[in-house]
Structures are given as C-alpha cells and as structure tokens.
Fold these 4 entries.
Entry 1:
Amino acid sequence: MTWQYTPEILPYVGLLFLSMLLAGGLAVYTVVAWTDGTEEPTVRAFVGLNVGCALWSGAYAMQLLSAAVPTKLSWLAVSFVGAVLVSLSCFSFAVAYSGNEGLLSRRTLLLLVVEPVVAFVLFTTQYGNLYTRRIDTVVVSDLVMIDRTFGVMGYVHILYLYGLLALSAGFLLRTIYRSNRVYRVQAGAVLLGIFVPLVANVVWFLRLGPMGNLDFTPVAFVVSGLVYAVAISRHHLLDIVPVARTAVVENMRDGFLVIDETDRVRDVNAAVRRHVSDDDPESIVGRDIGAVFPEVTSVIRDESRPAHTEIAVDTDDQRRLFDVQVQRLSNDHRFRLLLLRDVTDQHAVEQRYQALIENASDLITVIDDENVIRYQSPSIANVLGYDPSALEGRSYDEFVHPEDRARIVDAFHDDLEEPAATGRTEYRIRDADGEWRDVETVGRNLLDDPFVDGIVLNTRDVTERKKREREIRRKNDQLGEFAGVVSHDLRNPLTVAQGYLEAAREDVDCEYHDDIELAHDRIETIIEDVLLLAREGQAIGETDRVDFERVVDRAWTHVDTGSASLTVASDRPIVADEDRILQLLENLFRNSVEHGGGDVHVRVGTVADGFFVEDDGPGIPVDERQDVLEYGHTTADSGTGFGLAIVSRIAEGHGWAVRVTEGTNGGARFEFTMDDSPVTPTLDGNAPADG
C-alpha cells in the first residue's frame, strides 16, 4: 500500500485520528460503564453515534493517506457507513431522549435503513451512475484527492441524512423548551454535538472548504466528543433523561405540581391538567397556583399544616377529593413539590363500609391480647345500648356473664393462639340496661396484621333464638311426657283388645274381625307417630353440608313408591341434619304416592335459597293449604295426619320457612326457604317460579 502525506496535511490527519480515538473511547466507556443499561434505547443510540463518528474519522484519515485510487474508494465506502450510522443513531437518540421511544419500532427502523442500503449499493456498484456521475482525482499540494460529481441518488442520500439530523434537532429543541434546567443542559449538549459537524458537512457539500474541498466534518467530531464527555461527567447525560419523566411523572395517576418561591407553577403533569377547567391546559405553567388550583392556596401557605391535607375540588361533573402533600425539594429550597392523590373513590368505599358497619345488626369489636377493647363498631348503640367511644380502653371481660367469663377468656387465648386462627363460641353479655343477652361470637386473631393489631370479634345477638330454643325444648319435654302417658295408657288397653280379638277369631266367625284389626293397626300407627313427634319433634342435631341429590335418592329407596317416578334437579348442596332431612323427604314422598296414585311423578330440586318437592298429582285445594301442616289433618282413610306435621316441625327446627303452593304441572308443591332463624310456616296460593 502506497502512502502520501505533506507537512500541511499531517496536523489535520492527526486531528482525524484524535477524533476517532475520542469517539471510540466514548463508545467503549459507555458499553463498560452502562453494562446493565445497554437495553435502553438512548444508551444503544449513543454507542452507535460514537461508533459511526469513529468509523467516519478513521476512514477519512486513511483515505487521505492512501495514494491508490481503489484504496481511497474502499475507505470512502467505510466513511459512507460511518456517516449513515451517525445520522441514524443521532435520530434514534433524539427520539428516545425526548420520550418518544415508542416511535422506534422494528418496522420504523427497517424503513429508515432502506434508503441508505439502496444508496450504498448504487455507490459501490456505480450502477447507471445514479449515485456519482463522475469520479476523478485531483492533485492539491502534492496530494492525490478524490473529486466526485453527485448523481440524483447522491443528492437524495445527502438530503435524506440532513433530514434525519434536522428531525433530531427538532426533537431536542422541543425537549429543551419543555424541560427543566438539568434536561435543557443535557439536550443542549447533544444539539451542539450535532450542530458543529452538520455545519462542517454543509460547508463541504457546498464546496466552500479549502484544499480541494477538504471535508472538515470528521474533525468537527472532536468538538462533539468533548461536549459529550462533559455532558456525561457533569450533567449525567446517560443517567437521567427526560424519558423517565415522561414514563413516570406524566403517566402518574396522582397529580404532580412544582411551584417556585413566588407560588408560580413551574411544572405539572397530565393528572393535574385533567382536573383544571381551562381552554389551554399547557398554559398552566407560569401561572400563579391560586389561579390554577385555588383550593391548595391555604395548604401551601400554612406552615403548620399536617403532612397530609384533604381538599375538595369541584369539577365539571362532580366533586373530587384530593389528599395534598407539600414537600420542599432537597437540592433547591426555592421549589416546592405538591403531590395530589385523588381519594374520591377511596372515600366512597370507606363511607360505604362505614354505613354498613354502623347499620349492621352484628357487632364488630377489636380487642388486644389483654382483652382490652381497642375499637367498637357504632352498631353497639342499637344492639346493646352502649356509646361505642365509652367502651374503648375497658376490659371486654367485665361485660361477660361471670359464669361464662373463664370459658370466654380460655377461648380467646387458647383457641386463637395461632395468627389468623378463628373460633366460635356462645355466651351471655350485659347490655346498657343491665340485662343479660345471649350472643354468638366469631373471633379471628389478627394481632400480626399491622393494620388491625388485635383480635376481631364479630358478635350477633341470638337472645330471641335462644328463647325460642328454650321454649321448643320445654314444649318438647311436655310433649314427651304427654306422649309417654298416652303411649302407656293406650298401649295397655290396645294389647288387651288385640288379645280378645285373637280369642274371638278362634271362637266366633264374624265378618267384623278384619275391620277391628284394621282399627287396632291404625291406633298403633298413631301411637308410633305421636312418639316419633314427641321424641324428635323440632330437635335438630349437628348440621353440615349435605349432598342433596344423594339424600333424595336414599329417601326414595326407603319408601314404597310402586311405579311412581322421580326427577332430581339439584346443582348445590344444602346445610342440614342429614338424618332429619332424610325423614322429611320420606314423609313428602309417602304423601305424594298416597294422594297422587301409583303412577305419580315427583320432582325435587334446589333453588337460590332452598329446595322444593312437587308432584303432578291432584294437588291441594287453596282453602286446605292452611291446614295440611297441622296435627291430625288427613284426607286419606288410612292416614294419621302426622306426616306433614312432622315435615313442618323438622323444617322449623332447621329455621326453614315452608311454603305450600301449586306445582308446575298442577300438583302439590312444598318449598323450603333457608333463613337465619326459625320462622312460622308461610302458605301461599300463588305458584312461584320453578327452581
């Protein structure tokens, strides 16, 4: 390879190599220092920009030093690549730096490289002289230099690169205009790093340069490199960029305001602009905060204000509530930061739950590990007559009946030992009038929850339920005593009568013997039903989730149903005493077969709040539906009138309401509706919707 040089050109070549080393060093430094940030568009673009500068400077130096024309053209091709890389990287950096990195999609980047690729192919192949019409050499100061005349594609390519640089400058100027001081310095440095080489290149393109139109663009990259180095070291060019503000501040759900010492707005985000009634929201910047947001004026001028202050702002459609926090910036006390958090929805939720708590029939109490009341819901005023604020700080034990106190203390401290453990218990508690009320409490240990820091007690007044239970037990005891007497007093003479009947059959042939035996059997059945009702009545054992379809099938097999048919439409379990609901279903099936005939069709299913049993038999007349659930009511000669009465009592024991109505196909329908407490059976002549 033949080299050429003159004393005049050597300093310039030295500057070119210096520019190459400076740009290459910046690229290497950026990759090493920002290893974790190489995925950031700004960092990648900055590396590409400096690599392009290094290629352009070094290749142009080698082109000047080379004497052979083919060698010069080869280095000129490398300079071409460097110039394209500089322009594309500069454009990408400006777009990403200004917070518009969404524009840098793969599709956009592919479109941007189409023109440079076409131009490079035309440049290297000289196809149709579209890129360069003529390539000659000229001798200037004993140096052989390339002299080109551009073709159509050459001018298009140069204007294309200038267009990318002009767009880059536009993005940076917009950033300078809209950003605060630190971002303005950064963007200004990048803009200067673009502007100096661009001016040098325009001078070369217009053939205004010395020494045969020597290109000073690569040398101008020395200025760019120094500017970038200062921007990185002193102004954190790659550490903090406006894109962070766009991605975070502008998209914050909370309002963001910066005001200066004169109470004028210096910066504001979109969340605030949405709540300002102004034809031009951008005009907020520079205006007095009192004119923009008069509601915060008192907050920023009150030095003794709390850390958080709530204000109400009337917008076009409604009133919004904001939590305002004012902070002075640590690095510049001339400015104050206002954070406005919209708490309207939060207040609505809080008010809703507050209303639910205040109007609930249940009590919510929070006690600590020493049983001291830390919170009492307002509903206690309606339930027990206490002022909730008067209870806080008092021991919960003092309101519990002395006979239940030890058991309750053990329940709170033993059953709730583990975090989040729950327990249920019943006891007596004193109301404001000194009366003892029966309550049921579900406790949950939330001592480890920092927002609760206590044991939460959900208490329900079950006094009326307990009264009913005691009344039912009393009646059942009385009925049991009565049934025992009746059973004893009736069975003795019945046994005697049955014995005489057997003796009479042996001695006398009489057509009435069968009728007498049938009467004896009916008496025996009545006695058994009375005993069953007396012994079990409304008494319900432990309830649990029961597979309703399985229980229905069991009950059907326990009854002599003959040719009757059954359909079950159940999509959920029910909570019941399985033995008692089995007995309830058996009695209903017997009733359907007895009154509907051997071919009756029975349909059973669940509804939203209970279940039903219906048939397609003759049904129950409206005027008799009041009586079918009473003792002794029957329309069959062989019936005792206790079957449906037992059904009613089992339902009542579960706390279910019973509704007797017309079935879907005209038969009888019995509906059982779940309720929290036992209720009186309900009878209605109108058929409800099917389950």
Entry 2:
Amino acid sequence: MAQIDPSSILPLVEIPSARAPACSPTGDAVAFIDDRSGMPQLWIIEDGEARQLTDHPEPVNSFAWSPIGTQILFTADCGGDERWQLYLLQPETGAIRALTADPMTVHMWGAFSPDGQQIAFTANDRQKDQLDLRVMELATGAVQAVAEAAGHQEVLSFAPDGASLLVRRTLGAASDQKLELVEIATGRRSPVLDADRRVKFAAARMLKAGGGLALCDFEGDRMALWGFDQHGASTGCVFRAEGCDLDAFAREPDQDSAVVTINEDGFCRLARVNLTTGESRPLAVPLDGVVTGLTVPAGGNVALCAVAGAANPSAIWELPLSGDTAVKRHGAEPLPGEVEAELSAFNSFDGLRVPFFLYRPKGEAPPSGWPAVFIIHGGPEMQWRPEWRADVQWLVRQGIMVVAPNVRGSTGYGRRYHGLDDREKRLNSLVDLTALRAYLVADGTVDGARTCVFGRSYGGYMVMAALAETPDLWRCGVNFYGIGNFATHLLATGPWARQIRVAEYGDPATDAEMLARISPVNRIDRVRAPLLMVHADRDPRVPPCESEIINSLMFGLGRRCDFLRISHEGHGFKRIDNIRRVFGTLAEFIAQEL
C-alpha cells in the first residue's frame, strides 16, 4: 500500500453540494440550498445566474415558496439544536422577518395556505413532548391553536379550499402513523386511508379536484402510491413498483400525471405515471445514484430535482418530461476517476439475503486482501444509498476498501425487513455485520487483520456494539455521535421525538433488562481496539453524554480513546471549519491505526 495522506481528505470535504430545488410559482426563478459559502444557505437561479440569497448566522434547514411567489419561508435553528424557528424572506430585497422567536420551542414547518395569507406548522411550546397544530396569519402574526393535543404530528398541506389541514400523526415508531384531515375552525379530525394495521405515510398531498394522493404501505409490504377521495376513503392503488419501494412523488401542474422515484436496491429510477389509468413510462436519470427534492414546476415540461451519485456531489438538474437530455442547472462537476458503488448481497447467519455496497480501490488487491472500513448507516430507519461521500472516496484513494451493508432493520426493502431488528432482535443486525465480515474475509476480498468499523448516530451505536460484542475482529473503530447507553439516551433525547425512539428501541420502564443488555456501556471492558469518537455539544438526538461516559470509561480502563468535542453543532456538522477539523481528525486516525 502507498503511504496514507491524511491532508488529501480536505479538498474532498470542501466540494460544495446543492439540494432541495424549488421553482417560484411564476416559473422565473429556482431557489435551492447550497453550502459553498461555508454552511447551507439559500441560493437562487434567475436569468441563468446563481446568487446567494441569505447570509444567515445559522445554517438554513428547509424552505418553501409562498403561492403568491413574492416570499420564501425558511427554517433555521441555533447550533444544530433542531428547535426550528420560522423566517420570511423577500427575495427581491433580502429583507428577513422572524415569524417565531422562542429558542426553546420546536416549530416544525408545514405549509402555506393556497392564498398565501396563512401558514400552518406544529410547535411544542405548550408541552415539550407534544407537537400541537398552529395556524398563523402572516399579516398580523396572530397564531391560532387548532384541535386538541395529539402527540407527534406534522402538517403536510392545506386542503385546496384552505379550510382544513392534511396532518400526519406518528403513534409510535416512524412506521406507525395516521393520516388525517383536520378542520381549522372546529378541530374535527377525519381519518384518511384508515387501516386496522400499522401504516407508514412517507408523503401525501391534496388534489384540486378533490381527494388526494399518499405514498404509503397501506396494503402489503412495500411503499406505493395510493389515492383517497374527499372523505378520506381509499380509491385504490395508483402505482406500485414490484419488489421496490417508492421514495417520493411530484404532481404535474394539470394533476393528471405524476413523476415518482423508485428505490431499486438503493439506486433511484424515475417513472411518469398517469393518475387515472396507472400507466407509466420510464424517465431517464442523468447518472446512477439518488434523486431528491423532486418537483414538477408550472409549465409541466420538466422535472426539477437534485441528483447525487457515489462519484457525483449533489447538483440541481432539470429532466425534460419529453425524454430529452437532462440539463444540470447548478452544482459541482463530477470528479474524474472516482469509484462507483458496486451492489452485492450475501446470505446471513439465518439465510436472510442482506444487500451491501462495495467501493473497491483501483489496482491490484494485496495478497491478503484489501484493508477495509465497514460503514454502518444511521437511523436505524434508514438505508445506505450510493450518494456522494467525501470520506468514502478518500478512503478508496488511499487503497482502503469501503463496505457499506444494509443490515436487517434498514428501510428500502419493505416493512418486514425493516422490522427484523426491533427491540429484543436488536443484536441480530450486528450478527449480519459479523457474518458479512467473515464472508468477505473468507473469499479473500478483505484482509481480516485490518478491518475498521465506522458509523454515525445509530451507526455509532453499531460501532460500539461491534467492538464490545466481537472485540477480536476489529483493528479500530470510529464512532460519530453514537448511542452508548439506551437508558440515558432515551432520558435525555429531545422530548418531542422520544416516543418514536422508545417504540423503536424499547421502553426503559418495561424493557430495562433488555436495554441494559444491548447497551455497549455495560460491556465496555471488552473493548480492545483503539477508538475515535466525535460528538457536538448541542446534539438534540443523541446527547453528548453518550460519548462522554464512553470516553471516561475507556480512560479509566487504560484503553485508547481519542475524543473530539465540537462546539455549536448538533446531530452532524454543517460549518466548513468544523467539517475540516472532524474529517481531518478521522483521516489522521485511519492513517495511524489501519
């Protein structure tokens, strides 16, 4: 192997990305989020030129155009604490008006009313573990409470007449949800696509002609596009992709057709669907990867989206619905010679087929196989997908293979697969990781003496579980803001989302013994491998105490643990100086230990 160069990671992490494009209602401008200024901010393309719209002191999280087209609402928090505040921007002048100003309250953005005079959102100002419905008159700032408390809920849209809200309520885990129409004047709730089983609603929108569309697993194992009438009753499945989940949909302006994204083993493909007949035809994607932020602007001639691939940073694209060649509107160029993701799968310990991605270094493999970093995705209700990762491309350039599995519990493979790691089955996903490592070592692909395990958030938990449960298998570990102790995690995590995490992991009141068994902190004496941990001080999802206690215990045991604390960031890193520091430290650690 050539000498590892830690400094060479910095140019890769500095490559900007663009995401979440949205066309103005008048069709003459496209707004999007770009981080080339050093952290995510709002940008706009007008007359073919891109310019920065905001220079907010905090990263911009999300935004929406007003239906009247002269205003943009955007959200931002303080230091990544996810207590979102709402702001109204005048694109022409740059003037910004703060609509909320309570730094201890989460304001979950929802939607504009059809006439642009009101907004709807949810907030936990009344009780920190409840997100209540709110409607604000933009002219006066007056806020109306809508309906009685109902736990964790989000506004998806207004009804076309502006009198009701389409609301998604999460009852337990993120895969157990209800869809409702809520009358603003009375608070009366009416079920939409009501079922006597657990349903996940990924998205839903109303149609001008009445009723609407929802992306959900209303019947069966997979996410499909379903219709409902003005009373909320099912009108049947509009479109499904056999053996695949749908990721998203965007209605065309005439609302007779829609463009859908299909998740095919992590890769995205697109289809244009007739909403009356269900007939579809494929729509070309400009590169192998993942499509996000899909919309069809007024005019209905193109789909607007962000596209990212393993070797392509996220950029803004226009995809002509006619099938003509796609046009990139804004974004970094693909890097020549970068490595694409290879999709593969193996049979795990119980015969379950588990998919994984390989990022293979160029050139001839060493006789003993490649040194390898196994990266476990977060969530756990997530999926590793072939998107741009600067750290992955840096590792491969250094002659290190990257292995990224979608162990049981991952999304994208249906409800049954997603539920295979719930509660007492938690460690079965770790056995998948161990079995995959053995599989790749046995066939000579990976050098068994030089394997590292790396993960962020829930992936960081998997790192600690791997080092504690199978300590002799790993040369080193890298844990970014991972869970160490489920009891303290569930006590200190943001209360507005605690019920979702309790439903996924277990209830400390009734499942204390099980949670203690799967918490790595209780087996930390078994960890032998050098460990790098990184955690930010304002993380609302996995509080920094999770890493602090692991670091203290490793120090007490005399084991190597490098701990990097980051200030004024949350669950991840948004500021370029912090990103340079975090990934520069990662590169130094890998150079020393692998």
Entry 3:
Amino acid sequence: MKTILSPTLRYASTLLLLILLAVACQHEMPMTNRLVDHQPPIFPDYTEVTIPPNIAPLRFLLADTCDVDKAAATFECGAERVTVWASDGRSIAIAPRAWKRLMKDAAGKVISVKVTARIAGEWVGYAPFNLYVATDSIDPYIVYGRTDPSRNVMGHTGLYSRCLEDFHERAVLTSDMTHGDRIGPATFSGGDAQRFFLPLSGALSCALLTDSDKIEKLNTHTIPGLPTPTHVAWHPSGRYMAFAVNRNARQDVRETASRIVIYDVVKHELFTSPQLFSDSSSVTYPAFSPDGETLYFCATSLMAYTRADSAKYHLCALAFNIHGGRRFGRKADTLYHSRPAPPPPPRKKSDKTPPRRPEVRPDGSAARPLPSPDGRYLLFTVADVGSNPADRPTSDVALFDIKHRNFLPVDTLCADNDSEIAYSWSNNGRWIVYTTRSIDGLYEYPVIAHLSADGRPSKPFLLPLKEANGYRRTMRSFTHPTFLTAPVPYRNYTLSRKARTLEGVDIQPLKAGK
C-alpha cells in the first residue's frame, strides 16, 4: 500500500533534508577564488607555536583589520581532519571532542591549520600554519589572580584555579568573601595544591597556611617590627618558608627597602643571617633551590636604593643548611651583577641586518628568581631599575644556566618595549608561564612557552580561553600564574570562614641566624 504524506509533513521533511545538506556541506572547506602567500592575521597568534599534548582547544579569531563576513579553518594531523566554520564569521572555536581526536596521537607530530575567509564577497585561502605538539605534557592546573590594573581599587581581586586541559575555572577566594581585603598571591610548595601560603591585607591582616586537611591562620601583623611578608618561597622540605619584609610600615608602598627572614613552620619562629638582614642593603625575592641547599635572592646596597631612579638589584646565591650547625654560608655568590651596558659595536652602513639582542640586559635590575625543578636553570626577570618589574614597561625574561654559568638566548620570549615577568615552571621543567603586557600595553596576560632539554625556548602562546575573543572581554589582568599538579582542594567558603573565625597563631620574635 502506498503511503501518502500530507503537504505539511512533506514540507517539514524537505526542510529537514535541506538543513542536513547545508550542515553536511559545512564540514568541507569552501572553494577559494584566490590564494595568498601569507598566514592569516589571527588573535591570539597561535601560528607556528609549540603546544603540550594535553592543552585545551586553541580558539582564535580573524583580526578586525580583515573585512571578513565568513570564515572556516581545517585542522589536519595524520588521518584526522576537522573543519570548523566561524559561528560569527570571525571566531574559530573547535569543539572539545574534535580537538581531543586531533590530539589523541599527535604528541611529537604537527597539526596543519588552513584558514579560508570570505573578504568582500571573494573566498581567500591563506598560507597554512603549524601547531607543533610536544611530547612533554604540561601540569594540568594553573592558579592565578585576576585583578583590576589599578592596584588601589578594592573589590576587584581574586584567586582562581583553572584546568589547562579544558576551560573549567573556579574561584578559590575572592575579595568580596573577605569583606574587601586584598588577596595576595598564593605561594605553593613545589606545585602541591594542598600546601600553600595565602596573605590577606586589610581588616583581617593575616595569612592562611594550608597543609593537607589542616588550615592555620597566622597573625602576620604581630611580627615584631615587621609588616606583612611578601615574595614568599617554600623550602622543598616544607619545613621552612622565606619571605621578604618591608622596612617601611606603610602597606601600600610598592617599592621599599626590605630584608629576608626564614620562618620555621613547626616552631613558629623566625631566623635570618647578616647577608639577608642588614642595615646596609635591601634584599628581596627569595627562592630555594630544588635540593634546598641554596637560597637565591636579589640585593642592592641601601645607598643605591635611596636613589630610586638608579637602584639596581643583583642576583645572588647563599648556601643554606637545615641539618644542624651553621645555617647559612659565610659569603653570597653573585650570579648576575648589574653593570653599565657596553657601547654597541660599530656597524657598516651596508649592514641591514637588525642588531643581535643580548642574552641578558647587562645594566638591568634582577627580580623573581625561579630555579627549574632539576636545578639546572634559573629563570628570572630583568627590569631597567628597581625591584618591581610590573611597574616597568621594559621588563624582560632572562635564563641562566647554573651548571655552565652562562646566559641563554630568550629572543622568542621577549617583546620590545613591553613588560614580561616570569612566574612558574611546570613540574617536569619543560614549560614556563610568564605574563606579558605586549597585547594591549595595559593588562597582564599569561603566556606559556616550551623549553627544550638544552634550554632553547620555543615561540610562546597565550593561555587558551573558552571564547576566541575572551581576552578582549575580560578587562582584568591575570597575575602570578602558577602551575599545579592537582586542583586546589579547598572550597572558597571554607577559606573565607577560616580567615574570619580561626584564632590566629602568633609568630615568635626574630632570632639571629647561626
């Protein structure tokens, strides 16, 4: 018996068939009218970057300078091929499932990306670009602060945890949960999400110290003669922490002469040494070596510091012993000594090549030393002057080979006339994260770069966001990004309640180092 469809049902079936055909056609790239020999102008710039095999999908948009109304991109790796059409005509947002298919066996291989865009009614095919997938994985989590660029604005600060393998982000603690208190950067012990030091400044004026299921509140304002600690560094044993303390009691001072003290987590005591606590020098940014036997720090003479426009901090190393006897070495070793820059060599008029960038600025000011997990390299920041590179528009990242005592080239990491600040190593020592203001000159954005076994950095890439134009909508800086091997296990209401209700532990008076 022949089935007769009603006109309404026939119309619906025809419409559904047309929709399915249209969707099916969109899985293929459009026919191009012309090809160009340059790569597409995309943001973020993911062209020719090296990425970890467990990173979230890289999503991007075509630059506003292109008169584009439609666009598509094809991602290809081996037998896997995925075509993505821009939902709004500009944004290329590959789906998580499609991205996982591409990345399943992509480690050590190359993903080719071809972008086609309709410009003024004409389909233009751009030269393809590559995504180089490393064999080294990245730590699956990262923690960062999100803050307004105006550091004096209250209520716009918070600590957030993000999974790097997807786009899941959650608030660890925000200022509206601490009655407007400013939340300082959290310092984690060796990438351990369960052990960190989190200072709060304002009405609470304390610090939270976590260790597994234990949360302790420290009364940092009771430290005799020493205001709130900053620039905290954990000893790998978890027994000690080093932090800088400002001599100036005002908490809003950005750059003040400082000293370094060591805090015994078990005894709640402070101790130090003449090299770290002196009336003749300003010492800051402590960092312990992975074996715990060396303390790195930045120092300048107090006489140089009084001339704020010319203070230069040197990078130093001091022996540290936790097994009894003398705790500190007798003399600090200077690894980076700021000196006047030599004049550039004469160049021939016929030489059109750009001058070679030095491995490290010779006359800079060192800050934020970060030893690699294997103890081989020392990543740090070099500003033009002072101890706060975030305030300097020309801060650069530098890399020191501790074994061979020489500096390595980092041209790919640094942009001219913009601020880059180093913050963290991955647990395997193959990835670094730092911030840059090179995107818009105002906000700090997190940038990730791969380092080879011999310390050669690849082209860095911006932390992928869920929306292709996410960085143009955030209107916040991402500060102090830190890699973690696991998510932060504490809920924000738990940390907030502990900060408000726990009875604080007083820190014992400072003792002289042995």
Entry 4:
Amino acid sequence: MSESNPGQRQRSGAPVFILDEDSERTAGRDAQQANIAAGKAIAEAVRTTLGPQGMDKMLVSDSGDVVITNDGATILSEMDIEHPAAQMLVDVADEQEAALGDGTTTAAILTGELLSAAEEFLDQDLHPRTIVEGYWEVERIAADAIDDCILDDDEFGEESLQQAVESAMTGKGTGSVAVDALAGTIIEAVERVDDDGTADRDAIAVEARTGRSASATEVVDGVLADADPVRDGMPERVDDATVAVIDGDLEQREPGVDTEYAISTDEQLSTAVAAEEETLVGYAESLATAGVDVAFVTGDIADRTASALASRGILAFEDVDGDAAAVAAATGASQVPGADEVEAGDPGSAGAIAVEAAGDDSVVRIEAGAGEPRATVVVRGSTEHALDEIERTVNDGIDVAVAAYNRREVVPGGGMVEVAVAERLREAAAGVEGRRQLAVEAAAEAFDAVPRALARSAGEDPIDTLVELRAANREGRAGLVIDGDVTVADPVEHGVLDPAAVKRESVRSAVEVATMILRIDDVISAD
C-alpha cells in the first residue's frame, strides 16, 4: 500500500478516497512546527503587557469597535484567531480568567517558552512523548515549589488580602479611582457574601453604569435589577418587603387548544368580561392575601392586573427573566408559576426594595434579603471605553479576592515565585530519569522568562535583573518591586502578593496547552 496524496489510498491499483479532495492535511514535523509557531505567536502578542508597567494593546474589530487594554485574557479573546493550535491557548486562558481572574499573561508566556524549548528538542530528534512526560514532571515540581512559597498563617491577614487584590489590578484601567480604594471596595463586597468563612463568587454581581466618575463606584448589599414599575402610582420604596417571584405571566390564560366562543347576547358578553375581570383582579387579590408587597414577574402583567396591584399598594415588575434567579436567591423566595401559588411556595423578604433613576431608565435595588448573602459592585465611568476597562479590572479583582479569601494562600509577587520554581527545577532535574531530564532543565529557562518580561516592561535590563534576583533569593526572599523606582527587594514588605491558586493555575494551563500541541502530528482541515 502506498499513499498517492493526502486524500486517497491505493489498493489493487484503484484509488480509495478518504478525505474530500479539497481538504488540506499537514503531517509530521510540518504540523508540529506550524502548531508551535502559532502558540509562540500568541505568547509574543501579550508578553509586553505583563506587570504593573506593561504596555497596552489597541484592538480594532471589523466594525471599527476599539478596545484598549493590557489585560491578557481580553486581548486573547478579542483577537481574530483562526489557527486551531492558537485557539487552544485562548480557550485555556478563558478558563483560567473565568476561574481566577488573573495569571493568563503569565500562562501564555510560559506556554510560548515551553514550546520554544520543545522545538529545539524536536530538531534534535527527541520524541514528543518524552518531552510531554518531562513537562508533566515540571508541573508536579512547580506545584511543590509554589506551595513552599506560601506565606505562613501569621503573615496572612486582612492587609495581605488587600495587597493581593491591589497587585492584581495595578497597571490596569481604574479610571479616576485609586487602586487601593477600588481594592477596598472589592474586599467589602467579598466580605458581604461571606458564608461561614467562604465567599461565593457567583453571589457578587458587577453592574457598569456611565454618567459618573470611577470614584463613585460602590457596593450594594444585595442585588440590582433592570426594571420599571408596571404602573405609575406604585410605591417607589418598600421597607421590610415580602417578595414574590413568579415564573410566568399575570394575564388572561389562553386555552390549551384552538377554541372559538360564540357570543350572541349582551348578557353573554357581560359574563365573559366579568370572568376575565375576576381572573385578572384575582391575581392581585392572591398576592395581597399572601401578604406580598413586591412582585417580580418573568412574563407580562395585564393592564387590569397592574391597576389592581397598584390599588392594593403592591409594587410589581414584569419581564425580569434575566434577574429572577438572583432576586429569588437574595430574598429567599421560591419561584412559583402563578400568583395563586405564592403563599404555599413561601415568599421571600428584603430589608428594602427601592426604585432608583439610572440615566433614562430605572433600576431596582434589593437590599439585605433573607436568602443567600448577595452583593453588587456598581462600577462607574465617565465614558464607555473607560467604563469597559474598569469593569474588566473590577471583575478580575473580585476573582482574585475570592481566590485569596477562600484559600487563605498568597505568595510573594514580582517574579519571585517563578525564580524559585526555576531553581527547584534545576535542582530536581538530576533526579529525573532518562531524557525527560532535558525537558525539566529547559523548563527552568521558561520560568525565568517571566521575571525577564517584568524587567523589560519596567525598562530594566532583563538579564542583569534576573541575575540579581537569583542572587537575592539565595540569601532570602526577593522579587522585582515596581513602586516609582524599580528595585529588587522583599515583595512581602512592599505589599506585592499574588494568590497561590493563580500561580498554580498558570503552570497547569501552560503545561496543558504545551503538551496538547506537542502531541499533535497531523492536522486535517476541510476547505
């Protein structure tokens, strides 16, 4: 059997087509080189954004929309990436961003460096499987080294949490608000959703609103819903509110099958109108009987029902499908399908529900509910561009704060961890059997690339800085501290901290992407 072209096989002289003739296939070393090049290109695209003095990128879409940011995850997600290997890196970065909110740029740099090292080994005919197994050893050794860098319990406290959040946001867009003030706002939100020492990230929402400066950013103890009262004359504020969440409509029910009614007399018409009136007013009566003060309805509310609700002093909102789950969680209300089931379904409660102006629209503030603890960070910005960047920064800060708050594990920043991991890899390489040792040794250089990138972003010589960092870490604890001047000093003393979870995930992501790419030796694409 011989291969005549990528799309067919010969057998007994007759061609058997396996792939469409328009398909493209890249195999062997060519496929590996193309995939490695794609991964390295992604790493280079974000390398200069690393650190508090990292550069920004301007991303312009086909429609002319402009995004200016130095957030690695945003850059990767906004780039129009077609190469499948590069997209793998973007997908893993998205997962890390969603889980922890930081570390994606570090992960991308590490991935690019691991792929560069692997490329040299492949040129020397080292089998990809050997490199992959070596990188698995790297992940294990690096995780142990990171654990050894975690601050002791007596060093971790409220100040450490604040510093970790500040470190994650320094260099990113925060508008007119100082980083420390914004970090304090974020920590306030995290503490408000504390449930027995653990904060639920999903319990913190972020609402972005233009019209005021970033310094007006605040925390709401509860949730916000975009809705207007269904009728004028309803109360705009209800204290100690009993709340119903109805998953359906408060309108005249449609028959389940096509039905026609023949009305031939005034009496029949009056009867039909009275029946409809009874149904629509009955919704309001059921809510009033259940003691409901405020009703959130995912569907529509009929005008007659809205009038009956207003006359009974009940505040009601319709079309709140996107906010219903959050309202129910915050107030402890059960979502029920109809008004007549509210009493049995256990309505919720809130300390206060108020309708407030938000530009040309209204927003409903639900405070201090009886359900799960909830908080909303209301982000402000004077322009849409500024607001978008501040919103991204706040979301990242919340992710970092929750990771540090829940695990109570932070490590020194400023590249100190990467230097420590690199040193550990060099020490451990001798104990790794076979040619995998080469991959472990090369990975040490990959980790050195992170402090080199930090130094370059700060305008320092990367090689001299790395040499100084290595020497200082042999004597104690040292990282690159960028605070006006650029110095090699103890990051903990200068408040430069990172969640240990972010470092672990950066290593895991880098190894995962690098090994996935190295194990591919055939790329088949349809036209």
